[in-house]
Specification:
5-stranded antiparallel β-sheet; 288 residues; 11 helices; 3 domains; Uridine Diphospho-n-acetylenolpyruvylglucosamine Reductase, domain 3; Uridine Diphospho-n-acetylenolpyruvylglucosamine Reductase, domain 2; Enolase-like, domain 1; binds flavin-adenine dinucleotide; single chain
Length: 288
């Protein structure tokens, strides 16, 4: 099917883009990689009056280290993250997630910010970035807001963005000098969306856990944080008991459904096992 007719704008500057988004309000949509928006338009699930293509705007395509954390611009593609040296080590959860997203064609075009703005409960970036405690920088003609990711996701395909606003960057806080993590994904075949995904990101402090981030993909109406598991780990030694108990708490936090990818019980079990594996990897005790 062809999309409904729409106006197409390709602004060369951020100011111009924000002015167009202001003009069209909730009838305008940002076009980034187009990997989710274009299929939705072809199926007529989305029929925006105007597309504001941000691909020609300079300065939005960088991953930079800022104050020990990261700033990921709105045009950073999945493939950029796959290749970035900055997304290893302390930010391993992000570097491990990138190559597991779909296939090379989608990864060449799709953006991290577009993935967050699309807010698919099966989106992998949502969980990987929730685990890091990331925030979204949203700009409009009216100014700039910084929105913590757990407030940004408001439900399936729904975010806190207001008409006229766009995500300009994603900020990942400094996890401290000793941090590690990973993203584990179960998929039916390579390139599929997650049956279950688990993001684990741990900062260590004097040998114990300082802060732990655990987030889940595909087992709820949006990417979910396993808050009780995170709280139980804070300050704890990352030993077998703590790992087992965090796996149980995360499984309880999951809210999966039976579907073609598996039963709710199966998915809950995968969450438990993946949280355990992810934490062991973060502790340097076992390859996940
Ligand atoms: C075959 C296929 C398989 C896929 N598999 C996976 C997968 O396994 N895991 C996964 O996580 N994803 C998967 N995806 C989705 C993919 O990651 C998309 O790239 C991503 O969801 C959207 O990014 P985009 O840049 O293409 O956004 P677009 O399609 O351009 O936009 C998506 C939505 O976000 C809005 N938007 C985009 N950028 C901004 C911005 N800066 N500010 C405000 N709003 C914005 C748009 O207006 C639109 O509503 C798959 C997609 C396809 C086609």
């Amino acid at each position: 099917m062809y999309p409904a007719s729409f106006e197409y704008h390709a602004p060369a500057s951020l100011d111009e883009a924000l002015s167009l988004l202001e003009r069209y309000g909730d009838e305008g949509r940002v076009l980034a990689g187009g990997q989710s928006l274009i299929p939705l338009m072809k199926l007529r699930f989305a029929s925006p009056r105007a597309l504001v293509d941000i691909n020609r705007i300079e300065g939005l395509d960088g991953v930079e280290e800022v104050d020990g954390g990261l700033a990921i611009g709105a045009l950073v593609r999945h493939k950029d993250c796959e290749r970035s040296e900055l997304l290893r080590g302390r930010f391993g959860v992000l570097g491990d997630a990138a190559p597991q997203i779909s296939d090379p064609i989608v990864r060449n075009l799709g953006t991290v910010a577009g993935s967050l703005a699309h807010a698919d409960p099966q989106g992998d970036w949502g969980s990987a970035l929730l685990a890091t405690g990331a925030e979204v920088e949203a700009r409009s003609e009216g100014g700039t807001r910084v929105i913590p990711l757990d407030q940004f996701f408001q439900g399936p395909f729904t975010t806190a963005l207001e008409p006229g606003e766009m995500v300009t960057s994603v900020r990942v806080p400094d996890p401290g000098p000793r941090a590690a993590g990973t993203y584990l994904k179960l998929e039916r075949k390579v390139g599929d969306y997650a049956t279950v995904g688990v993001a684990v990101h741990v900062s260590f402090d004097n040998g114990a856990v300082g802060k732990a981030g655990i987030a889940l993909t595909g087992v709820g109406p949006s990417n979910l944080r396993a808050s009780e598991a995170e709280a139980a780990l804070a300050g704890a030694e990352l030993d077998d008991d703590a790992i087992r108990s965090a796996g149980e708490l995360a499984a309880q936090a999951a809210d999966p459904r039976d579907d073609v990818r598996g039963s709710a019980e199966y998915k809950r079990n995968v969450v438990r096992i993946f949280v355990e594996r992810g934490l062991r990897k973060a502790a340097g005790r076992e390859e996940a």
